[in-house]
Amino acid sequence: MKMIGSALQKMTGFVGGGAGIASRFFVSMASKIPSLRMGYEAAGTGRRLGNWQPGNDSVNALLFQDADLIRARSRDLVRRNAWASNAIDSLQSNIVGTGIKPRPTVNDEQLRDQIVTAWNRWTHEADAHGMLDFYGLQSLAVRAMVEGGEVLVRLRNRLPSDGLSVPLQIQLLEPEHLPSSLNQTLPNGNIIRSGIEFDKIAQRTAYHLYREHPGERSLYGGFNSTPVPVPASEIIHMMKVGRPGQLRGEPWITQAIIKLHELDQYDDAELVRKKAAALIAGFIKTPAPEYATDNTVDDVDDYGVMNTVWTPGTLQVLREGEEITFSEPADVGGSYEPFMRFQLRAIAVAIGVTYEQLTGDLTGVNYSSIRAGMVEFRRRMEQLQQNVIIHQFCRPIFARWMDQAVLSGALKIPGYVKNKHIYQSAKWIAQGWAWVDPQKEFNAVIMAIRSGLLSREAALATYGFDAEEMDRVIAISNNRADRLGIILDSDPRYRTKTGAAIPPDPSKKPAQQDAQTTPSTEGVSFSGEDF
């Protein structure tokens, strides 16, 4: 800086102020020259970034404008693009699987069993359309959210005369029922943004919904375009929130839509080119006019072109001066496979699945590589299960179900109103993950339990099992084995880890030993769902 200041002194004639004045002059001049501006490189406006001037609209402004078109393109890709459809299937099966199931945490064991029994009975009646059970609705809701960005769940209270074990059913609605273009201020001071009504403290009070799906107007020849307000207490709006204040969801394949669309077209073009390359087309050249075919020949078409049909084993005799050449269309080339693999990896990253899940291609995969990818993927799925599915979908439905069960008399819980938060509390257990290498996985779990780093209950929950149900099943199995005189090497009451017999304790009678090792099942009823 001193050297620059000295040079500037000579150039500008500054004297007496020394290098300090020159330095200040340099900084002042530099601030006026874009190429010398000091700051973030990402904020540059030079040749490289001058044409990149994105807007700073809010997420809601962007979604209100583009959500309908993005959603339509997402659905179109899922319908006709195998990669998009497979990605949606993969997310759906990994997030929900066979169902995320509740386990009440109330201390009263008998009451817990009553709640579980009533809940299991109601799950078969949960669908307002009568097509799925509760866990099927879970899976369908997740698929609708992933494909369309969001899903609306309407809680429909029913009459006692409807004959349900608990007078409640669930209706799933696609986001098209909620008009994105509906934005206005109501006379009472409430505002509507993208079909959602808010009060003066920004609390959701209603959802303005179309009675019919707008896409069905072509079926019935008409469409009632007047939305109907439904109280917010009757609607669950499930979506993945990406930015604070976000009101509507975006399809999960949004970042991959362009690549999926254009890659599908490219792949089709390569398929057609490969098909053309597989065709054998021959041309007979006639170099001199005197050898041209006239119209008197039997195998000449209306344009004077001779038709030649070859069959296997044909020997074609050519006229004097004629020769045969064959077409040689361009082949796909050796770059096709690596190019497709690279593009599909980028698509997998954009959607949030692994390349192997997107394509089913396990080429070059080993235990370490696939485990590394699955660990990160499972962490993301567990986050979605807890923050989106359980929090937005499962807990509100379970709370409403219990309210209706108590009001209808399906459950007898004294003091329920004062202690609702206690009775409505439950652990939600998702289906366990499939093992990449079962022996290594279970050995690691056993070591963690024996060293005190992991409880048996937590380990069972990781694999989708409930500890209390598992204990009851083990108790039933042990009692049946003892009654039939069956002793297996896997029974730790009688065998060591190596299968050697454990000598009985002479100070205890056999009945006492069994009582010591086998939990009592007296007074406990079991159903097929316990297994």
Layout of helices and strands, plus pairs?
Blueprint: H1 2-12, H2 18-32, H3 59-80, H4 82-95, E1 101-104, H5 109-123, H6 134-148, E2 150-157, E3 168-173, E4 184-185, E5 191-193, E6 196-198, E7 204-209, H7 217-220, E8 228-231, E9 235-239, H8 257-278, E10 282-285, E11 323-326, H9 336-351, H10 355-359, H11 367-408, H12 420-423, E12 426-429, H13 438-450, H14 456-462, H15 467-484, H16 510-517
Summary?
The chain has 531 residues and is an alpha+beta fold. Helices cover 44% and strands 10% of the residues.
User: What is the strand arrangement across the widest sheet?
Assistant: 4-5-6-7-8
Ends distance:
79 Å
The low-confidence parts are: 11-19, 293-297, 511-531
- Enumerate how many helices there are, as a single number: 16
The ordered string of helix (H) and strand (E) elements is HHHHEHHEEEEEEHEEHEEHHHHEHHHH
How many E-type strands? 12
* Count of separate structural domains: 4
What structural category do the secondary elements indicate? alpha+beta
Q: Report the sheet with the most strands, covering strand number, pairing sense and barrel closure.
A: 5 strands, antiparallel
Binned, the helix content reads 40-55%
Bulk shape: extended
State which percent range the strand residues make up: 5-15%
Rg over CA atoms, rounded to whole Å, is 36 Å
Mean pLDDT, rounded to whole units? 82
